[in-house]
Amino acid sequence: MSRRFFSRSLRIKLVFASVAVEVILLGLLVYNSHRLIERNLIEQTQLRITELQPLLNAALAGPLAARDYATLSDILNASLRKEGLTYLVLLDHRGKVVAASGWDVQQPLPKLDRSISSSSDDSPERFDSETAITLAGQRYGVLHYGLVTDYLNNAKAVLLQQSLIIAVTEVVLSILLLSLLGLWLTRHLGQLAMASRQVAGGNLDITLPVHSDDEVGELTSAFNTMSASVRLQIGKLQQEQARLNHLLSAMNIGILFEDSQNRVIYSNPAFRRVWLIPKSVDLLGRTTKEVLQHLTNILSRPDHISKHVLQALGTQEASETVEIVLADGRVLTQLSNPVHDADGRFIGRLWVYEDVTSERQTAEQLIYLAERDSLTGLFNRHRFQTELERVFTESERRQSQGALLFFDLDEFKYINDTFGHRAGDTMLIRVAGAISALVRRNEVVARLGGDEFAVLMPDANETQATQLAERIIRTVSQLPFRFEQQNLRLTTSLGIALYPQHGSATEELVARADAAMYQAKDAGKNAWRIYRPESDASREMLDRLSWQERIRHALENDLLRLHYQGVYRASDGSMSHLEVLVRMLDENDPEQLIMPGNFIAYAEKSGKIRDIDRWVLAESVKLLAQTPGMPSLAVNISGRSFDDPTLPQYIAAQLNEHRVSPPRLLVELTETSAVSDLHDAQRFIEALRQTGCLVCLDDFGTGFSSFAYLKHLRADVLKIDGLFIRDLANDRDNQVFVKAIVDVARGMGKETIAECVEDAETLAMLRHMGVDMVQGYHLDMPRGNHPAVNTIIGR
């Protein structure tokens, strides 16, 4: 009972601790006083020895030198009585005792003490020492003596007794004083302790009276302030909890909290909604495993519970986001995160469920748009190429056959230019719908761009291919069209290539289907032709197949070269940038360059132009990275690249990899390609602008509706087609048209470039019209070793 009282009584603890500290301090003080007194007495004794030794030496040196032993005995006896010495023994230089007083010479001399505080154990009240007896620097003997030290012990005993009396008195007085002080200090602490227990029990409406202004009074005031603050904070927490509950209840994301024992402590309404849990089912206190296993009946795959849900319960790690498909077709995402307190201790887990059904549908729609032609809904060129490669791979594995049909619309450009692109778009939509109705489910129909279409027929023989070709020709020719009070008849030319007979690779098969289509056009159009090696004798067909192989060989063996032509500011003649032009080395004569007019058209037909575009872009970006001070570069991109949605990302990746500022690269697109496939061109240009590159619309003015398309094609620069520049000085109509382009471009915040400037008169006229930049043989010739490049890179 006394021990319990001692452990709980602050007053007893205070007195005991204070007395203990004081006893320790007083003990240290007594010990230190004793040590200092002893040191002082020893120092006085040592001083006495120091003073005594010269006196003894002076008294004994003369008689010892004269061997006056009687005198020496008298001196020793006198010194023994006067100086407080216990004995004196004098030895000559041979160590023979010549005189002694107070010591039996028959006994051996005692061991000498090293210091006053370490005198001999057998004589604790005497200090044994010796001193040499010298005269005129010559040693005649040694005096052994014992000094009385018992007064030291007596003095120390007296002082120690006095210190102890003082210490005991002080301890007794301290106990009395501290008891009174403890009683005074703790008189209100009992009330504080009781009030604190009531607060801990939930009673926060307690206020204690303040009886003093001292620390105890301040403590009481602080308790009252704390109690009020706790009430305020709890009120705020309750409000915050109400807001949080309202927020969680309003969320469309399902939230489930569990404690460290995997028991549910909270779930919001969205959790019940996504899992279709009735309000009548109480979840609180139930284990998470029990709750989630109860929901397996609404899963399309019940094994998801054990695979993705239950395995997270045994860990304290965050889980990956997983998708759970419900039986009704909805898709939920699940994410689980551990919850830790401020000290890092695991206190539970948070489960988050979100219904992403609409997002997945949107993603599927985006995938659909990325693979489909926006105008007709057919597969685009990119998806068609993917399907062609897939079917080719399967046919090789299964040793099956198939057919590829290529066709375009005869005289479509005339209809487009005469009646406008709206009429052309209507025709394309009607044709796409009609062809889609003719093909089987496993056959693929695609719009390759412009008015070009293709049909891929897996597991089809020659008879089936020709029958479908005949139906397509007949169906297109029978489609009724009427524009501006005119009835129009549309026809198509179609080519067929069979695999594996006509091609062992996709590019070869495409080239031969394309060749067969041109045979059909040569036959008078509105016809189909199947590729026959024996009928492919024309120089054009042979060249078409030959160029495909030469382009492939050039790409694989680094036979492409870049040339550069300067583009200059019309106002002052300073260089604005360089246009990049591609050339091909002749594999049979490396000194001979093949101009792009000889191979670009074939590259566009086969799709190899996209590989050439990427090669030119990569080399241009590398050059810009190697020479930061050189002018910007303009690179031409084929219209076939509109079908490659990854090209803008490729450009951005190249710029980022080589750390080139995007505005240093100008991408040029031909107006005719952009207008013929306006929707794809719009998406492509927007993606290019996202990379930060500038966009130039090349050959501007060749379309009849050029100005109308400017608001759809957000180009930064317009390059006026050379057709209007070559004879500008002599053609009034061209002058009016060029001036109109310049004025419209300036009004829309775009710059203009005039190409094919071949004389000073044309240059002066363009400068007067306000053209921003000029390009042509009068100013600069395309060359591989252009000074603007060579000077900067120090070649």
Write down how many β-strands occur, each being a DSSP E stretch of 2 or more residues.
25
What number is the mean pLDDT? Answer: 80
Q: Please state the overall shape, judged from the principal axes of the Cα atoms.
A: elongated
The CATH architecture of the largest domain can be given as Alpha-Beta Barrel
Q: Profile the largest sheet.
A: 8 strands, mixed, barrel
What is the domain total for the residues? 4
SSE class? alpha/beta
Percentage of β-strand residues: 15-25%
Say what the CATH topology of the largest domain is.
Answer: TIM Barrel
Task: Identify low-pLDDT runs.
Answer: 118-123
- Widest sheet: strand order? 17-18-20-21-22-23-24-25
Structural summary, described in words:
The protein has 795 residues and is an alpha/beta fold. The longest helix is centred in the N-terminal third of the chain and has 57 residues, at 10-66. It has 25 helices and 25 strands. Helix 19 (647-657) links the parallel strand 20 and strand 21. Helix 18 (609-626) packs parallel to helix 19. It has 4 domains: 2-158, 2-Layer Sandwich (Beta-Lactamase); 251-361, Beta-Lactamase (2-Layer Sandwich), CATH 3.30.450.20; 382-537, Alpha-Beta Plaits (2-Layer Sandwich); 551-793, TIM Barrel (Alpha-Beta Barrel), CATH 3.20.20. The radius of gyration is 55 Å and the shape is elongated. It is 49% helix and 20% strand. Strands 17-18-20-21-22-23-24-25 form an 8-stranded mixed barrel. A 5-stranded antiparallel beta sheet has the order 6-5-9-8-7, sandwiched between helices. A 5-stranded mixed beta sheet has the order 11-12-10-15-16, sandwiched between helices.
